[in-house]
Amino acid sequence: MRIAIFADIHGKILLPFKLVNLYQKETEKKVDLILQCGDIGAFPYLERLDKATIKHAQNDRDELGFHDDFVAENEAIHEFLTELDLQMICVRGNHEDHEFLNELEIAHFLHPRFPIDIYQKVLVCKSGIKQELKIGDETLTFVGIGRIGDRKGRKHQKFIQDYEKREIDKLIKSNEDFDLLITHDKSSSSERGYGTEEIRQVLDNVIFQYHFYGHTGEPFSIEPDDNGFTKSCKIKELEFTQSGNLPEKCMVILEKSLEGEFTLETVSKELTKQLTKHNWKY
Question: Are 86 and 53 in contact (CB under 8 A)?
């Protein structure tokens, strides 16, 4: 099983699919799934954009990609996604229309994840809920924790909600092991002084092979988590630089063998630089 992993895409919903398509053509290796670490930029209604998205969208229409390309059907995009035949499973970030996502989450109350786009290719997983994906004889288990943490008791929807904390508590008590933890924020610790306490609690009590996250603006890194077992990987945000190119290590490929062993590849800049700010849509 081969999984492509990305962090903050901020409205460039189509870009991970384009990069995976390019990767498959260049390497002749099939990708089975895309995982995405939040800040999707899921804003279907322009009147409900947050302040940061309004500011960035004034200079970059890509910030509004969900509204422009994934609410009403675009025939060319539909054909491309149908042929590619991949889903992208995301966690919530802090830059989303959470009211919109809440409505969908409630409507899909029986399911661990729910589609958010017209093509049914972009799904959001519920925080703290076990996710399982079967492809042939292979199975991937993972947990997503979306939004960001807050130490001041604020109730804004960009922060982890009480109902999600209850699910996280159940997860901690479940005594299950998982392949992956996908989050938007990083874990907290007394040394860092920021991050999400619930993520730290999960990592201290549940066994994961890998933890992937974005959000922080820090460079790509992979290092042992404080729990001494999990490999913690900060994915570089999928944002074009001033030169119009993608940053290094903004795309990761994780492979799981039939024996359950993992290998991690950071996709080379030689591949990702083929898609620039000026040509990626075309």
Answer: no
